Amino acid sequence: MAQILPMLTRARAFYSRGVLLSLPAHSRSGVRDDDGMVVFAMPAAAVRIDERGCLCPLWLPADRADEEGVDRAISEEMLEHCRLAVHHGLAEGFLLYGDTSLARASELLALHVIKTGTEYWAKWGAAALAELPRRQACGASERV
Fold first, then answer.
1. How does DSSP classify residue 21?
2. Please, what is the Cα angle at 38 between 45 and 112, to 5 degrees?
């Protein structure tokens, strides 16, 4: 029998991980106050899986082309958090499911954030792929 895990809204998922958001209704990343860890919310539908693990785009320059107002502020915030995560060498994240506003309460991924050209990507799960089914190891069981 499949276990049903509690789901949280994106803002509550950040709050439950100790992150207070600057734009609670919109932010997709934040920094935990107690240890400075950057935490990202990533849409499960954007996750790419291969033999080396999982990848998800965090920030792409093309995202900025038509941004105005709040969207631009969110993009700038995400870019700053990506830079901070690269500097720290690690970050944490969780996946968003459905309409990209719900997260699993217990899900937390250890991420390595990399810069490729002008893009920022989250990588995780290489070791877990050998032990768990691909969809489970990458936290993408909703996409089967």
1. -
2. 65
* Cβ atoms of residues 86 and 97 within 8 Å: no
Which of 114, 133, 136 lies closest to 123 in space, CA to CA? Answer: 114
130/27 Cα distance (integer angstroms): 33
Phi, psi (degrees; rounded to nearest 5) at 140: -115, 35
What SS3 class is residue 11?
Answer: helix
Query: How confident is the model over 112-126, as pLDDT tens digits?
Result: 999 999 999 999 986
Give the pairing type, strands 38-43 and 91-97: parallel
Burial of 139 (0-12, 13-18, 19+ CB in 10 A): buried
pLDDT, averaged across the chain: 83
Residue whose tokens read 């320059």:
61
Distance of CA 96 to the CA centre of its chain: 8
pTM for this model (two decimals): 0.82
Handedness of CA 46, 52, 58, 59 (dihedral sign): negative
pLDDT for res 63: 57
Cα gap 44→91, rounded to integer Å? 17
